[in-house]
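Quick review question:
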């Protein structure tokens, strides 16, 4: 099984946690995002989440003694520049007042982070870690893990930061998708490192809450089969182009009504199952703010 970026051809289509969740929610949404790559409007929540993630990554790149609240506050500006450098078109979407609001909200979230964890007391093994692993049936998993902590005794903790608030009517599903994402990463690490993560930690910066969950190996093995089944269903749909819409209350937040038959729209001509698909780049934004409660 391949576990290192570069060991498996990056051109192969792969399953990411966001795209797996899309397919479970609505196969047509998966097609629009992963195959058609239809554009979606960015939001201030997405930008704020990206800035917070970039600042925390920079924070943990410093010596532990330098990771105080004043330091992370000063990192918001460089984090903004990093985000804009990666996607320069985002800069033109906000006026000066909106940019100030995004940066102020990012500082507020980062200030609250210190009530949940003390970054001066430990050193993560990695931040924003790209992971890629091929399962036994050929399913290729790919994603970006916010943070991986390894205790001196070898225990593995997987951490994900959530910077937005979901609408109350979508909160339950958002929390389900968040834990789905964490189990996805746990399976990927179990297969790539041969180590069972002992703790999955979700850090809700907006709500000031920590959610810790300890999976067992039998649970992750069952979940691995679920991921395989999702990927096989995606491939079957990809072979025929039969990605059917699955209406739900989440349709209210979908950006693709004009292309969805449920709303009287028409999908673009099906381009066929991609020979080349690198979901890692597209997923970076989606995982860090586009989904509910990201």
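Suggested answer, residue by residue:
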């Amino acid at each position: 099984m391949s576990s290192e970026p570069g060991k498996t051809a990056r051109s192969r289509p792969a399953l990411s946690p966001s795209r797996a969740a899309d397919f479970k929610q609505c196969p047509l949404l998966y097609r629009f995002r992963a195959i058609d790559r239809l554009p979606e409007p960015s939001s201030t929540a997405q930008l704020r989440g990206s800035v917070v993630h970039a600042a925390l990554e920079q924070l943990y790149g410093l010596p532990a003694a330098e990771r105080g609240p004043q330091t992370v506050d000063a990192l918001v500006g460089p984090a903004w520049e990093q985000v804009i450098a990666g996607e320069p078109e985002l800069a033109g979407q906000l006026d000066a007042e909106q940019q100030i609001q995004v940066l102020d909200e990012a500082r507020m979230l980062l200030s609250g982070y210190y009530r949940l964890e003390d970054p001066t007391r430990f050193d993560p093994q990695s931040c924003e870690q790209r992971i890629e692993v091929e399962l036994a049936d050929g399913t290729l998993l790919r994603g970006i893990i916010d943070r991986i902590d390894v205790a001196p005794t070898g225990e593995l903790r997987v951490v994900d930061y959530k910077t937005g608030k979901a609408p109350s009517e979508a909160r339950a599903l958002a929390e389900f998708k968040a834990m789905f994402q964490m189990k996805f990463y746990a399976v990927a690490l179990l297969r790539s490192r041969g180590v069972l993560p002992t703790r999955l930690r979700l850090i809700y910066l907006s709500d000031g809450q920590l959610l810790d969950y300890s999976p067992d190996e039998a649970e992750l093995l069952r979940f691995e089969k679920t991921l395989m089944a999702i990927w096989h269903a995606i491939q079957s749909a990809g072979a025929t182009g039969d990605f059917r819409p699955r209406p739900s209350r989440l349709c209210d937040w979908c950006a693709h009504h004009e292309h969805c038959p449920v709303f009287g729209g028409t999908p673009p001509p099906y381009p066929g199952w991609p020979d080349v698909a690198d979901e890692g780049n597209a997923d970076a934004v989606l995982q860090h703010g586009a989904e509910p409660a990201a």
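Why it works: The two ends are 30 Å apart (CA to CA). The chain has two domains: 17-37+122-290, 44-113.
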